[in-house]
Structure formats: C-alpha cells, structure tokens
Write a structure and sequence with these properties.
Blueprint (H helix, E strand, L loop, with lengths): L3 E6 L3 E8 L2 E8 L24 H24 L5 E6 L3 H10 L2 H4 L2 E6 L5 H13 L3
Parallel strand pairs: 1-4, 4-5
Antiparallel strand pairs: 1-2, 2-3
Length: 137
C-alpha cells in the first residue's frame, strides 16, 4: 500500500497522521512562531501630520512571515515521501501550507484535498485520515 498522510495544521502546531499498510502513526510539530503582538504607541515626527514610525511593526510582520515559512518547510520535509496528502485545519494555515507545497513540483500533484476542520484530538485526526483514505470511494 502507498504511504498516505493527513495533516491537521494551524499556526501553533501540526499533527501528521501517516497511514501505511493500514497502520497509523501520528507525530506533532510545534511551530515556535511568535504570537502577533499589537505594538502600543509609536513615535511621531516633529512636523504636524508627519509620518509615524511603523518600521518596527513591519519588521515584526516580516519576522512572523519568515517563521511561518520555516514551520511549513519543516512540515513539508516530514511528508516528503507520501503518495497522497490530505490537508485540513481551522484557520488560514492549511491554505498557506498548500501554497507552499505547490511551489514544489514533486508535492503539488500529491495533494488530494484541502478542507476546513475544527480543533480535533489526536484520535479524531487519525480517525478522519483513516476514513478518508481507506473508505471505498
């Protein structure tokens, strides 16, 4: 049997449920991405209606984007040899991961489905992946 994987992902963590020869294994990956923090205040220029200092906020957004990209690359390395990939989760992370995977010629054709799912326990994730790949279509 081919190796299939289901990925439940959000910006905090990802659970990878591998299915091979009807045997399941699950692993988790923490993102270590800093939470989005609203910066208070800011400095104004001496001129009225002058520009505000937003450089530090822009830096924070760029850092967040790079951390997310590293996180997605870690997930992609873990599923590199899978034949079929199901991606699901609650937020935007599933779409961002799909976009990152489509940059790879080897992985873009392996994505079977991307769908919305709420918070799930590890057993629910494994059950969903098992039902998706083993149920007769």
């Amino acid at each position: 049997m081919k190796k299939s994987v289901g990925i439940w992902i959000d910006h905090e963590k990802a659970f990878l449920a591998f299915l091979k020869d009807e045997k399941e294994t699950i692993t988790s990956i923490k993102s270590n991405v800093e939470g989005r923090v609203r910066l208070s205040g800011g400095s104004r220029s001496a001129t009225p209606y002058g520009p505000q200092d937003v450089a530090s906020e822009r830096k924070k957004e760029e850092r967040n984007k790079h951390q997310l990209r590293r996180y997605y690359q870690t997930v992609i390395r873990e599923v590199g040899d899978a034949e079929k990939i199901l991606i699901f989760g609650p937020g935007e992370a599933k779409k961002e991961l799909e976009k990152e995977m489509k940059k790879s010629k080897t992985l873009s054709g392996k994505i079977v489905k991307v769908e919305r799912a709420d918070k799930m326990t590890e057993n629910q994730i494994v059950g969903k992946v098992r039902d998706f790949f083993l149920s007769p279509a």
